[in-house]
Structure formats: C-alpha cells, structure tokens
C-alpha cells in the first residue's frame, strides 16, 4: 500500500462507557478510536429489493493501514457522515485493512 494513495481522512469510533450519571447508571457514547489516512476504493449507491420494497444504500469501500482490534462493531465518520462497517478484510499479513461501509445518512 502506497502512502500517496491514502488521500482521505476517516475517524474510527467505538461505542464506550464514558462515565456515570451520579445515580449508578453508565453513560455510553461513541468515542474516537483512531484517525486514519485512507484510500477510497469504491463509492456508489446500491439498490436492493427488501421486504418493504426497493431501498437505496450508499456503500463505500475504504483501504487503510492495519488497526489491531478494529471490528465491525465500530463505525467510520467520513466527510461528516456516519458509516456502519459491514465487512472487513485483512490485506496481507497485517499490512492493511479493506472494509465496506454503509452510510446511515446521519451527520456527526
């Protein structure tokens, strides 16, 4: 993977406990895990036939450096939009990651 191709900036976030509310209840929210340079491999809108009819989903495939412990439970923020990680593949032997995301249509 060439560093010059990593021309986008993404933020990987993880749902974590950030404290308690003083009544013993945990406060959970999305917190930044790591900020990465990434390559946008593919971006497009895919149409699916669902039980409730036709649906459009914006799907983006990113390639970046390997991050140990990153899972599909995490999410990506790119251009102010939140993306759910749907699939991840390791490139080589921990040389990098390629992951497919689906935009939730929500901004940060």
**How many structural domains in the coordinates?**
1
Secondary-structure-derived class: mainly beta
The CATH homologous superfamily is named Bacteriophage SPP1 head-tail adaptor protein
Q: Strands of the biggest beta sheet: in what spatial order?
A: 1-2-3-6-5-4
Considering DSSP H and I runs of 4 or more, what fraction of the residues is helical? under 10%
| Outline type | globular
By CATH, the topology is: Thrombin, subunit H
Low-confidence stretches: none
Number of strands: 6
Describe the main β-sheet briefly. Answer: 6 strands, antiparallel, barrel
Number of helical elements: 0
> Overall pLDDT, averaged?
85
Query: Over all CA atoms, what is the radius of gyration?
Result: 16 Å
Which CATH class applies here? Mainly Beta
Q: What oligomeric arrangement do these chains adopt? A: single chain
End-to-end CA span: 29 Å
SSE string, helices as H and strands as E: EEEEEE
Named CATH architecture:
Beta Barrel
Fraction in beta strands: over 45%
């Amino acid at each position: 993977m060439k560093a010059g191709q990593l021309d986008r900036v993404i933020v990987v976030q993880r749902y974590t406990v950030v404290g308690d509310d003083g009544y013993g209840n945990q406060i959970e929210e999305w917190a930044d895990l790591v900020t990465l340079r990434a390559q946008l491999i593919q971006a497009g809108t895919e149409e699916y036939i669902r039980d409730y009819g036709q649906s459009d989903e914006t799907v983006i495939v990113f390639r970046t450096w390997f991050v140990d412990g990153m899972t599909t439970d995490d999410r990506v923020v790119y251009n102010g939009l939140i993306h759910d990680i749907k699939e991840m593949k390791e490139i080589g032997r921990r040389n990098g990651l390629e992951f497919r995301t689906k935009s939730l249509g929500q901004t940060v």
